[in-house]
Write a structure and sequence with these properties.
Layout: H1 2-17, E1 35-40, E2 46-50, H2 60-72, E3 83-88, H3 99-112, E4 117-123, H4 130-137, H5 142-146, E5 148-151
Parallel strand pairs: 2-3, 3-4, 4-5
Antiparallel strand pairs: 1-2
Helix pairs in contact: 1-3, 2-3
Length: about 180
C-alpha cells in the first residue's frame, strides 16, 4: 500500500510539474551542476553523477523537478535501460545534508522507478553521515539495501571504467557539468 500511495504521488508530481515539458537547457540557478549523466559503468549502464555539495536547500523544489526530468529523459530511456548512480560525498558534511531531499531521492529510485536503478554507489561518505544513513536505510527493503554500495576511491573502478571515473570521486576525468 505504501508503494502504491507513493507511486501515485510521483505520478501526480510528474503531471502537476509537467516534467516531460520542462526545459533545463538553460539553467540560470545552476541546478544542473549537481546532477548529470556522463559515461557508462562496466556493464554499459548510463551513470548519473550526483554532487550534493552543490545542492541549495532553498531550491529543493527545483532539484526535485530536475531529478524527475532526468529520470524521464535519461539517455537509454527508449531501451528501458538501467542506470548506476554515483553520490560523490567526499566534501559533504552535516551542514550540507538535506535529509528531506535525500528521502525524496531515495523514494524516486527505490519505489517509483525501481526498475531504473541498477545500483547506487555512495562514494567517501563521511563518518558523521552514518546517522543519516541509519535514518534513510530503515525506509529501504533488504533488496534495495543490497543495491547501495559504500565505496572509497579506487573501489569505484570495480564498477566504472577507470578512464571514465570523474575527478569528484578521485578519477582521472576532469569533466565538470556546466549548464548551457
Amino acid at each position: 500500500a505504501v508503494v502504491s500511495t507513493q507511486s501515485g504521488h510521483y505520478g501526480r508530481g510528474r503531471k502537476v510539474n509537467s516534467v516531460r515539458d520542462l526545459d533545463f537547457s538553460k539553467d540560470p540557478d545552476h541546478v544542473l551542476t549537481s546532477m548529470y549523466f556522463r559515461g557508462q559503468d562496466l556493464d554499459g549502464a548510463d551513470v548519473l553523477w550526483v554532487e550534493p555539495k552543490y545542492f541549495d536547500k532553498t531550491k529543493r523544489a527545483e532539484f526535485e523537478k530536475y531529478l524527475m526530468w532526468l529520470v524521464e529523459n535519461r539517455p537509454g530511456e527508449a531501451d528501458s535501460s538501467q542506470i548506476t548512480i554515483v553520490l560523490a560525498l567526499g566534501d559533504v558534511g552535516l551542514t550540507e545534508v538535506d535529509v528531506e531531499f535525500i528521502k525524496y531521492f531515495i523514494n524516486i529510485f527505490m519505489y517509483y522507478t525501481a526498475d531504473v536503478m541498477k545500483k547506487m554507489i555512495i562514494h567517501n561518505m563521511h563518518w558523521l553521515l552514518n546517522g543519516v544513513w541509519k535514518l534513510v536505510s530503515v525506509m529501504l527493503s533488504e533488496g534495495a539495501k543490497k543495491r547501495v554500495l559504500f565505496l572509497k576511491n579506487k573501489e569505484v573502478n570495480k564498477h566504472i571504467p577507470e578512464a571514465s571515473v570523474l575527478a569528484c570521486v578521485g578519477g582521472p576525468d576532469p569533466f565538470r557539468y556546466q549548464a548551457a
